[in-house]
Specification:
The chain starts with a strand and ends in a 7-residue tail after the last helix. The chain has about 240 residues and is an alpha/beta fold. The strands form four sheets. Strands 2-1-3-4-5 form a five-stranded parallel sheet, sandwiched between helices. A five-stranded antiparallel sheet has the order 10-9-8-12-11. A three-stranded antiparallel sheet has the order 13-14-15, with no helix packed on it. The protein has seven helices and 15 strands.
């Protein structure tokens, strides 16, 4: 069970997030704090595995709390909760596990809990690889492990996530080389897919395809042997 602390200077926001977290079977005790100072006190007196921090709290902000956590010996996972994206870069520089935008959606929160659970099982982990993207004149930071597949668009590449897509000025061939060690494989001249997001593969002779996050993407004859080999390597086999 994951014991959490929810900190926000607006009580309704605390209660709403606590309610949503309480519906998740993986969550244990939920502590509450209505200020950054109260959050720091709770961290010294309670056993907490993860902290959900509002960024814009008066006096002691969520970023201040995260900096204090970074200096301490006990380091619960940090998830920032905010109504804007202005502090995303600094948040991830502080090794935040996730960055949630208000209003919080239950399915998006569940993904954060999954990340926390995975991090706790591994006993810690590296700061997630972040990508800077532009959308509608706003610069955003997204996690590379949120990218389900990439689509070539000339000298650009479109990154697809569960929530949106983003155009970056990097050729698909460059991403293929740079992201190979992160589990991305080329399936077609126009597609690069994240192996962990592949749900199925159809090997029809005339039109092989792979299903990624609900999208059916083609597999070219050239890439089919490599795709089959990569997916076969992930198959779970019974012990002899």
């Amino acid at each position: 069970m994951i014991n959490v602390l929810v900190a926000d200077d607006e009580l309704p926001a605390v209660e709403e997030l606590a309610y949503l977290l309480g519906r998740d079977d993986r969550i244990g005790t939920i502590h509450r704090a209505s200020s950054g100072s109260e959050a720091l006190r709770a961290l010294t007196s309670e056993s907490v595995d993860a902290v959900f921090l509002d960024i814009h709290m008066p006096a002691v902000s969520g970023l201040d709390v995260a900096r204090a956590i970074a200096r301490s010996t006990r380091k619960p996972a940090v998830v920032f909760v905010t109504a804007d994206e202005d502090c995303a870069l600094e948040a991830f520089e502080l090794a935040a596990v996730d960055y949630l935008l208000k209003p919080i959606r239950a399915e998006r929160l569940a993904r954060s809990v999954s990340r926390i659970s995975e991090l706790l099982r591994e006993g810690g982990g590296a700061v997630p690889e972040m990508i800077t993207v532009d959308q509608g004149g706003t610069t955003r930071m997204i996690r590379r492990d949120d990218v389900t597949y990439v689509q070539a668009q000339g000298d650009y590449a479109r990154l697809h996530t569960a929530d949106a897509s983003y155009l970056i000025r990097v050729p698909l061939a460059d991403l293929e080389q740079q992201w190979a060690d992160a589990g991305f494989i080329r399936t077609h001249r126009s597609y690069l897919v994240a192996l962990k997001h592949v749900s199925s593969m159809k090997l029809a002779a005339d039109r092989p395809s792979v299903s990624v996050a609900g999208a059916s993407l083609p597999i070219s004859r050239r890439h089919l042997p490599t795709v089959r080999e990569k997916l076969e390597a992930t198959r779970i086999r019974p012990q002899a």
